[in-house]
Write a structure and sequence with these properties.
Strand order of the largest sheet: 1-2-3-5-4
Number of helices: 6
Number of strands: 5
Shape: rod-shaped
Largest sheet: 5 strands, mixed, barrel
Order of helices and strands: HHHHHHEEEEE
């Protein structure tokens, strides 16, 4: 039989068994068979074909072995065994716990509600007719207190008491019969502003009008 056939056959068998070693772990048995077949192919090329064909087969082996291993390891994760040994990386949304709940809590920011339980500082509040976990931003908040959502923290919202501003009201006018004797209450008299008399500045004085002192 042609020695070239043996060289080619042993080389392909070695590469094929090498791929099987990647997909079917055998404890190194298939790897040993693969190396033995490849070495036998190179030795046959040197012994039967000469030095030139031997070095050619050696060069082909040096390129074919790493290329075969690279293709095998690239395809391995897509196999059933590869998916069990090397699971696919998790999705970014799976790394953040309760991401959907966190996104939904942002809808409550700026809303007002009331405390259902005492916040010391954790508790529950009711916003938009829904009870959610909350944490007080400024001390203890008693139940039934009006609150405002100002942010989120984990799976809870951050709240504070509602800041109510006092209304400014004008004093009402007294009724007509409030002072029957037409006597008004003692009110502070309005001070009369008097114009400040005009004074001359230093530059306005006419020094020529002064008489020279005697003997000057």
């Amino acid at each position: 039989m042609n020695p070239l056939f043996w060289v080619t056959g042993l080389l392909f068998v070695g590469l094929f068994v090498m791929v099987l070693e990647v997909f079917i772990p055998s404890g190194g048995l298939l790897g040993f068979v693969s190396i033995a077949a490849i070495v036998a192919a190179i030795a046959t090329a040197f012994a039967e074909q000469g030095i030139g064909p031997g070095f050619l087969v050696l060069a082909i082996t040096a390129v074919a072995v790493p290329s075969t291993l690279a293709i095998a390891f690239h395809l391995f994760p897509s196999t059933p065994l590869g998916r069990r040994i090397m699971p696919s990386p998790p999705e970014p949304q799976d790394l953040v716990p309760a991401k959907k709940q966190r996104e939904r809590l942002k809808e409550f920011v700026g809303r007002q509600g009331k405390a259902v339980t005492d916040l010391v500082p954790w508790g529950q509040v009711e916003v938009l007719n829904e009870r959610i976990e909350a944490v007080s931003r400024a001390g203890v908040i008693s139940s039934e207190t009006l609150i405002e959502v100002v942010g989120t923290e984990g799976t809870a919202v951050i709240v504070r008491t509602t800041q109510t501003k006092p209304e400014l009201r004008a004093f009402p006018e007294p009724p007509d019969d409030a002072y029957p004797d037409n006597s008004l209450p003692n009110l502070p008299k309005k001070s009369i502003e008097r114009p400040i008399p005009s004074t001359k500045t230093f530059e306005d004085f006419e020094f020529d009008d002064f008489e020279n002192p005697s003997g000057a």
